[in-house]
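Reminder to self: tokens first, then the designed residues, so the page reads top to bottom the way the pipeline ran.
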């Protein structure tokens, strides 16, 4: 509260040649355990920090990971999870680390489910997850979405996403344009259920259509586009339509609250698109995405499209926020840094709409979010380094002022 250091503890540096990545955490009473791994995730190192007794306790584990691909890692207070998929199968496997830093293995067989690749041929889950779908979506990647922060289109445009909350993991697959496949994994009994939620029918050849989805507040928000229109549909997890909005190239989009912004186009910089046809065509031609974020009782929805990186550039989290920021982002499951400026070196077209909890559009001007205020701040202050960004009751931005030689922490609210 007063931005004062209240305690510290020292420990020997681990072997960073082997353990290259900080991958998560869990809690044992008031003691925090951090997890590191090797590049291939087979070697795991844990360290428990006991501030009361001024000591640390370490453990090492070797995972076989035979014929497995690591998909994602999840942290919460009680457990840390590593999720894999088993080769040429429909089997998911969890390595579950408990409060003591020990792990058990849990396997979930999904043989009763049907999976389709992007060419509409039936296959197994391993092959579906292994497809090379988008230039910025690697095979066997499962984008972890934290809806407590604004999600960038760079993340939400991916076709394979997962959401972790309240002992559940929701996996959404938009590899098939006809539907979103939703896999609901209960981490209390390690059982899974499946739903295929159809996207809106558009009478046009599949190769000219595009779609994506976003899971938020126990609802599925689907975007389905053609060159001249798109549908924004809100459904429950049984596939029932709760609300639908339609945008046509011949009409103004009546469910947006902000101008349509184009960044990084052929002329560089930012500009506003005046008519609906430009926006809809660009969304369909790029990689469409949709994301949701709570503002009070309402939901802010960002929808648009994004290109791959147009020229090589370092990741924002590491290059501009430094090592500390990148580690914090990974360790505490708070990917605000990556979302903050993930549009660098990409073509992006997007707009925002505000909706109530029933999906009805709310008219009016939008107030700037904390991320907007931070961007404005950095437009003025550029001679800074060692930035980090984290969220508790608000967003806190830390940075070193190279002129005054001070480390400063500022608070930003939505």
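Designed residues (414 positions):
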């Amino acid at each position: 509260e007063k931005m004062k250091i209240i305690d510290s503890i020292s420990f020997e540096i681990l072997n960073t040649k082997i353990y290259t990545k900080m991958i998560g955490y869990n809690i044992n009473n008031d003691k925090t355990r951090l997890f590191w791994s090797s590049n291939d995730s087979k070697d795991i190192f844990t360290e428990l920090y006991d501030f009361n007794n001024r000591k640390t306790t370490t453990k090492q584990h070797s995972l076989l990971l035979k014929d497995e691909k690591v998909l994602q890692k999840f942290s919460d207070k009680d457990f840390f999870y590593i999720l894999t998929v088993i080769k040429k199968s429909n089997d998911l496997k969890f390595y579950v680390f408990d409060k003591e830093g020990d792990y058990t293995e849990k396997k979930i067989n999904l043989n009763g489910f049907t999976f389709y690749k992007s060419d509409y041929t039936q296959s197994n889950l391993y092959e579906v997850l292994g497809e090379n779908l988008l230039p910025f979506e690697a095979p066997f990647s499962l984008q972890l979405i934290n809806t407590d922060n604004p999600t960038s289109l760079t993340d939400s445009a991916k076709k394979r996403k997962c959401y972790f909350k309240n002992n559940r993991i929701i996996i959404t697959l938009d590899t098939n344009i006809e539907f979103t496949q939703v896999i609901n994994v209960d981490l209390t009994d390690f059982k899974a259920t499946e739903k295929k939620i159809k996207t809106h029918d558009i009478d046009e050849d599949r190769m000219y259509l595009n779609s994506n989805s976003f899971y938020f507040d126990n609802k599925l928000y689907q975007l389905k586009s053609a060159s001249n229109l798109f549908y924004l549909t809100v459904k429950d997890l049984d596939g029932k339509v709760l609300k639908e909005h339609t945008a046509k190239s011949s009409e103004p989009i009546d469910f947006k609250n902000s101008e349509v912004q184009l960044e990084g186009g052929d002329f560089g910089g930012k500009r506003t698109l005046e008519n609906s046809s430009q926006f809809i065509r660009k969304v369909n031609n790029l990689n469409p995405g949709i994301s949701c974020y709570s503002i009070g009782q309402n939901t802010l929805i960002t929808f648009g499209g994004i290109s791959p990186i147009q020229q090589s550039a370092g990741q924002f989290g590491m290059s501009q926020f430094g090592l500390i920021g990148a580690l914090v982002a990974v360790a505490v499951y708070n990917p605000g840094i990556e979302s903050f400026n993930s549009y660098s070196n990409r073509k992006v077209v997007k707009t925002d709409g505000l909706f109530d909890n029933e999906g009805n559009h709310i008219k009016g001007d939008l107030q700037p979010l904390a991320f907007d205020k931070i961007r404005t701040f950095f437009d003025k202050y550029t001679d800074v380094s060692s930035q980090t960004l984290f969220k508790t009751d608000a967003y806190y931005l830390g940075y070193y002022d190279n002129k005054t030689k001070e480390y400063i922490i500022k608070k930003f609210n939505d």
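Residues 370-380 form the longest helix (11 residues).
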